[in-house]
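To: structure desk
From: M.T.
Subject: fold request, one chain
Message: Could you run this one when you get a chance? Sequence is below, nothing fancy, just the single chain.
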Amino acid sequence: MLAGPLMLDLDGLVLSEEERRLLRHPMVGGVIYFARNFESREQITALSSEVMRIRPELLLAVDQEGGRVQRFREGFTRLPPMATLGEYLAREPGVGTRLLRDAGWLMAAEVLACGVDFSFAPVLDVDRDACEVIANRAFSDNPHRVADAAKLFVEGMHEAGMAATGKHFPGHGGVRADSHLETPFDGRSMDELEARDLIPFRALSGQLDAVMPAHIVFSEIDSQCVGFSRYWLEECLRGSLAFDGVIFSDDLAMKGADHAGDYARKAELAVNAGCDMVLVCNDRAGALEVLDYLERTGTVASPRLEKMKARRQWSWQELERDSRRQAIRRQLEVLVNGQ
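Reply: Done. Structure tokens follow.
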């Protein structure tokens, strides 16, 4: 049975009866964890096991980027912001190359050891301080350095057995507005984007397993937010960039998506534009509206989603004995403490 086209969130550390029923809905295809769902490695592993007993085909995801976006913390390696790793690569290319690949491997292995399929990573935005919501989540404000650093990080994720998701296509680094709070408008031309923000996505289009578009309107190019635009997803991403992986919508509950209308309209636009799975987080009523829309329209699950399942199972016992993990942890601790 294929995973359905909706990914939603959970309220707490254990499943409620309502959530158990909800996860059995055929249009539900995944669960994304937040910090409120995490207490310990043992607890999150048990929660993942319970979800899998209900629907083994569901995808389990988390945002475990590093820096300020790291949902699982206690018992996990503290990851520096990606800007710190990008700067290290520029300063010491030889050691930085190994560390970036190792950091991707370690992040992925630790997440996989909890029964979670993937982290929505890496960030491919080109930024340093132009966009507050991105900033040091980006590897660099140099697009070629972003591409080089992200490629290494993805190689490490793949080595560990995790699929990689590049975000936020075609780039969130050129606007100051936070799409969680409002709809950003970017007035740059396609030529300007091709010369900067699109460079990492084009460079990694053949290595990424998934892409997440931004809730941004590029007003000189298309009137719709990127995630609701057939031009951006079909003509540009799948056509010009030849990307054949999964397309996840960004969270439809974000204010940046409200430009499109109500939840049913947002889901309709996202699916018709080419999204394989839509996310609705922190708004259960909104998730139920989207479920109703998907059921009424008979939206078909995408076979592409199967590639996001974990490709290797790790155990914490195995990782605790792994000398490579211990060495990487020591290197990353130095970087984190030096921030």
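Reply (cont.): The two ends are 46 Å apart (CA to CA). Let me know if you need anything else for the meeting.
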